[in-house]
């Protein structure tokens, strides 16, 4: 494999940059982030339903427990499903639960929907598809496997780019795992590394039917515009659906936009009506009867002190909600506020870099040292990717120093023997507060790919509850404990040497990783 292959993605048409409209924080009200509900549904829940997990092993065990306990639905969206023993055990759990569902009389039956990326899920002879075909063969009425194929990989480009490199054009990158009314949000994929020694983030939302319904609808919408895996390992589109790489690209993207936005807007309308109903029934002028009815229905449901906002980013379909919200959060963060931002792959968009360097809040940015980068030690050209990230990091650090912002903007590198680093997200501490009131968690890495190429989803979790704020603070501290502060001497170490060809190629290909 020669290095020219890295340049093949440059054949794809450039994506136009659209500036997000300005949006300002609401300084009053229940919390200052209610403006987000102008864009997406707002789900109010009790903080007692939120649990922050800390380790890959805990994540894996929870997946198995939740699969085994599921009665109505299992919905899993990931980049891919690995092919090792741990992944096979997950498939066995699904098989066992589906079998029990078939045998249970009078049961509505368990439905399993799995959404993966087509290119990553088809890589190699043994792959995600071959792992899941036995489920399709045994439970054809209950199992659906959808493989998203980016509309940007088509024609001559699709024929020329080899396996692995074709993944640079665009991916299904969303990671959501839900079981009945329990939802796990993470940046982790369904692969043995993410169950053992690749550090990520994971949050469980228990007994949250509205949130589970939303993400079920989202995965169904993407699934509807994806290739459907068949029992003989072939794929086909749903009847009447435009093909992602053989059909008209504009028509396909328009349909995909409509499907996804319908899920977002209908959920937003439902939540607004629910919010209005709750608000009016609690007013002094409301009738005694309606108050009693409301009290009866709410008696089992604690007053919400935590709000969940799903943030979707699908630039190929013209959906840029996550980008708009993230830019607004960075723009409006006040002086003396602290933002802890972490990414496994440090390659921020120019807009995000400009906001970090040009605003007033303090930043602590956690990124992977070369040794814990997921590409460290990879064969061929991919082995140079950690060096490319070092080069990007050095350039950003030099700009921070040039602007004399080292005190306000600090880089920290995660380092842990025998582990790799894949955590991404953000914690926001308001000025004068020792605890975060907001976190972002999900699939985006804050890089060009996340904003422009891939399908991404994360949630903003806003909470007034001190115990949950403490959980989020401990999560942040635990990750940052395994890090060292970046300084000029960091880039003088022998393992930070970047070859000239890497420096020359990185500006050309940085939009693809």
UniProtKB/TrEMBL annotation:
CDD domains: PLDc_PGS1_euk_1, PLDc_PGS1_euk_2
Signal peptide: 1-19
Recorded coiled-coil stretches: none
Keyword line: ATP-binding, Lipid biosynthesis, Lipid metabolism, Mitochondrion, Nucleotide-binding, Phospholipid biosynthesis, Phospholipid metabolism, Repeat, Signal, Transferase
This protein's record includes keyword Thylakoid: no
EC number(s) per entry: 2.7.8.5
Name listed for the protein in its UniProt record: CDP-diacylglycerol--glycerol-3-phosphate 3-phosphatidyltransferase
Organism: Irena cyanogastra
Lineage of producing organism: Eukaryota, Metazoa, Chordata, Craniata, Vertebrata
